[in-house]
Design goal:
Helix content is 34%, strand content 18%. The protein has 344 residues and is an alpha/beta fold. Strands 7-8-9-10-11-12-13-14 form an eight-stranded parallel beta barrel, surrounded by seven helices. Strands 2-3-1-4 form a four-stranded antiparallel β-sheet. It has a two-stranded antiparallel ribbon with strand order 5-6. Helix 10 runs parallel beside helix 11. It starts with a strand and ends in a 12-residue tail after the last helix. It binds phosphoenolpyruvate and manganese (II) ion. The site of manganese (II) ion has 5 residues, from loops.
């Protein structure tokens, strides 16, 4: 349910409506719109008499949110969610490019790739320290030592870092180092994990499960947002289909569908969605043309030596060329890929 306040409603009246909601054991989430404040009410809304709410001072009217995801819906918030990650803007007319290796492997690798992707135009650095591998015998990631290397790379380049958290009991540790907590495709419906990241102050990159619908993804986002964390980026990373010529099938439709259904920024991962470097740039261009707000791309100094996902990882120079092409598409779309002012 949404409580739409009158344009002239005072702060005291807004606070009064929120108190009334909370006294009924429900949660209130306020959105300060351009014209008026809207309070989203979530929980078991049968507990509250909406006729009574409609009569509260400062309340204009009360409306239902028809979608099953409430706070994540465009129905609830018309304006795009825009936020900052260490000075880097997300969700505006600026396209955010996150790049780096699949896994953090060593200090040399991380420091080298961090500088290379920054020089090629990336705005944030990725790298997995906790890796969700299909095989228990495959490299599982460097863990805390990997997080320390990411932090060192951030010091060196000034780029915020994006890294995966796989379990609720890792959240405090990963949040101590990371600027963005990545929830991997395999964990998209790990509800305890969604709950835990929803309680942190860190931005969240929520990847779509490989067999999840767009609605499933939005319901997962609702878990995070309803726990108080609104800084969420959604990420299409390819889904499983009968097609075998690529690792996954990029659901490019998901980009405009998500942009219509939610106010949250939408990203696309052309590396995992294709699994092959030869298709990455085409799909990166398509993502921006379809309206995506950003990309997350795997780049490795020596892809042939990568411990994970080498076949889909770009060399820095291939990534630099992709950024150029994406910049041209962004311009056609009336958007821009910001360029660094200072070279390292
Ligand atoms: C990754 O980003 O390295 C990763 C494991 O992605 P996904 O969860 O989309 O498979
Ligand atoms: Mn990977």
């Amino acid at each position: 349910m949404m409580i739409i306040m009158k344009t002239e409603a005072s702060e005291v009246e807004v606070a009064g409506a929120i108190t009334m909601v909370e006294e009924h054991g429900l949660r209130a989430h306020i959105v300060h719109g351009a014209e008026r404040n809207v309070i989203g009410v979530v929980g078991d809304i049968r507990r509250i008499d909406r006729e009574v709410v409609a009569l509260l001072p400062g309340v204009d009217h009360v409306m239902s949110i028809s979608r099953p995801y409430k706070l994540a819906s465009r129905e609830f918030q018309k304006e795009n969610t825009v936020f900052n990650i260490n000075g880097v803007k997300v969700g505006s007319d600026e396209i955010l490019i996150i790049a780096g290796p699949c896994s953090v492997e060593s200090r040399t690798q991380m420091l080298e790739i961090a500088q290379a992707v920054r020089e090629a135009g990336a705005h944030a650095l990725r790298g997995g320290a906790f890796k969700p591998r299909s095989s228990p015998y495959a490299f599982q990631g460097m863990g805390e030592a990997g997080l320390e290397l990411l932090a060192e790379a951030r010091e060196l380049t000034g780029m915020p870092i994006v890294t995966e958290v796989m379990a609720p009991d890792q959240v405090d540790l990963v949040a101590k180092f990371a600027d963005v907590l990545q929830i991997g495709a395999r964990n998209m419906q790990n509800f305890n994990l969604l709950h835990a990241v929803g309680k942190t102050e860190r931005a969240v990159l929520l990847k779509r499960g490989m067999a999840a619908t767009v609605e499933d993804l939005l319901m997962a986002a609702e878990y995070v947002i309803s726990n108080g964390n609104r800084r969420i980026m959604l990420c299409e990373r390819g889904i499983r289909t009968f097609e075998t010529s690529t690792r996954n099938t990029t659901d490019i439709n998901a980009v405009p569908v998500l942009k219509a259904q939610t106010h949250l920024p939408v990203f696309l991962d052309p590396s995992h969605s294709t699994g092959k470097t030869e298709y990455v740039t085409a799909i990166a261009r398509a993502a921006i043309a379809a309206g995506a707000d950003g990309l997350i791309v795997e780049v490795h100094p020596h892809p042939e030596q990568a411990v994970s996902d080498g076949a889909q990882s770009y060399k820095p120079e291939q990534f630099a060329d992709m950024v150029k092409q994406v910049r041209a598409i962004a311009e056609v779309m009336g958007r821009k890929v910001p360029q660094h002012e200072v070279t390292l």
